[in-house]
Design brief:
six-stranded mixed beta sheet; single chain; alpha/beta
Amino acid sequence: LEQDPSEMKRGVHFFLGGRDLEMVTIRELLLEQQQPFSDRNQSWGATAGHYADLLPGVMAAGLQPVFIELENDLSPAPSGAIWVDHHGPRAGADAPTSLEQIFALLELPPSRWSRHLALVAANDRGYIPAMVALKATREEIASIRESDRQAQGAEPADEAAATVALQQLQQFAAGALTVAQLESDRTSPLVDRLDPALGGDGFRNLLLFTPNEINFFGTGSLVTALAEAFGGWYGGALPEKWFWGVNGANQQQAVQQFLLQQLAATRQ
């Protein structure tokens, strides 16, 4: 949070970011608590500017805007706005997820923090390994992951593309880097199928090429190195591990070569 929730002196209005299971869960929590919010069903990479037309009314009503996982592209940004996120510089294994931040902002009692909320937060922070750390059953993990894929908009065609890609994986650097070509921009169906907790063979580092994106899942030092070298987005249970991505497929060879050089230098 940019501002301590305890310092809030007036009502708030929430603006929701890119849709995934965490954002859907936050939406449900706001509905339950009868909090005002706006949700334009945006995808990942959403910006606050998509709500610019609503801000004058919110500010005129004396409400404090709370932007959830929305990039600040407003100029100027509303005075006193609260920015909730768990990506980029705010990512980390010990950093509160956006769901946890909203829960605290709403000043809900600990008794309201359910098993489901804990699993959703763990999934967002550290994916399946974080749920395993909570002793989640295979059924719980499968349910959370299926719900997350659906929330992100995965369709049967995306699931089918993952099945095809699973049969065409390439291994480099003595198995330290797995490379996949996916005919869909939905990466989660393939990554889920690879996880040992769901019966997959696992991977050390995964480089995933899609029609419009390049995505990487793996060692935290490689995640930050990719972000520094190519920009894009990143997050997860850093500094140990998780994800990075960038729009555009024209840098595929450059990214792959960069990773192979990093792996050769560090032997990860």
